[in-house]
Design brief:
The protein is mainly α. 78% of the residues lie in helices and 0% in strands.
Length: 129
């Protein structure tokens, strides 16, 4: 029996790459909606704790989505780290009074999405197929 490997076009690979990114974003949104109500409301009143709770909600759901897609644990850990990094880095300016709670949340999300994309491009063999 002879098997031939099918080669996908660049457009098809780009579509799958983009779809995978969209799946991770959708999982993150589902995580925020599904897990957000489980946390004590007193924790969410503090912007710093709220940011870490939201990062956790998004990360848990995204990790589950990546496990279902059978990604390597090292790639899952990298993506989880990329999701926390902006929020953790912005905590210091927040604690020093240089950022408001709203700015912490907005900037954390704005930075997180391009970092996720950068991680996917960096490890494109994992996502570009």
């Amino acid at each position: 029996m002879t098997t031939t490997a099918t080669t996908r076009t660049t457009a098809r690979k780009l579509a799958r790459f983009t779809g995978h990114y969209a799946e991770m974003v959708a999982a993150m949104i589902i995580g925020m909606v599904a897990l957000g109500p489980l946390w004590p409301s007193a924790w969410l009143e503090r912007a710093d704790i709220g940011a870490l709770v939201m990062a956790t909600d998004m990360t848990v759901a995204m990790v589950l989505a990546m496990v279902v897609r059978r990604h390597a644990w090292a790639r899952i850990a990298e993506m989880a780290a990329v999701m926390y990094l902006p929020f953790v880095a912005l905590l210091v300016p927040y604690w020093l009074g240089a950022l408001t709670g709203t700015a912490l949340m907005v900037a954390g999300h704005v930075i997180m999405f391009p970092l996720m994309l950068a991680a996917m491009v960096w490890r494109r063999a994992e996502y570009w197929h």
